[in-house]
Design brief:
The chain contains two helices and four strands, in the order ββαβαβ. The protein has one domain. It has a two-stranded antiparallel ribbon with strand order 1-2. The chain is an alpha+beta fold. The longest helix is centred in the N-terminal third of the chain and has 21 residues. Helix 1 packs parallel to helix 2. The chain is flat and about 55 Å long.
Length: 91
């Protein structure tokens, strides 16, 4: 499904994910949760990247993904990736 949004500099087109795609994302979040829970049974804290928001994704779908991904994890810290990697070389 395509949607058009009127912006300050003209029209913007955005592709909104269809329901089948979103169902697949929810299923993958549940599988990811199984893996995290399995591998962090004895962890006091789980640290993971904050999942990216897909273009056109509804807030409710995004929060469902995050909720499914973190189910049954007592302490979790999301870290947002800045997409700006810094490499420091010492000589």
């Amino acid at each position: 499904m395509n949607a058009s949004f009127e912006g300050n500099n003209g029209e913007y087109n955005s592709t909104i994910p269809d329901q089948d795609y979103m169902d697949e994302k929810i299923a993958s979040s549940k599988r990811l949760n199984e893996i995290i829970v399995e591998r962090s049974k004895e962890a006091s804290l789980v640290i993971t990247n904050l999942p990216p928001i897909l273009e056109g994704q509804k807030a409710q779908d995004y929060l469902s993904f995050c909720s499914n991904m973190t189910q049954n994890i007592t302490r979790l810290l999301f870290i947002q990736n800045s997409s700006k990697e810094v490499l420091t070389q010492y000589s």
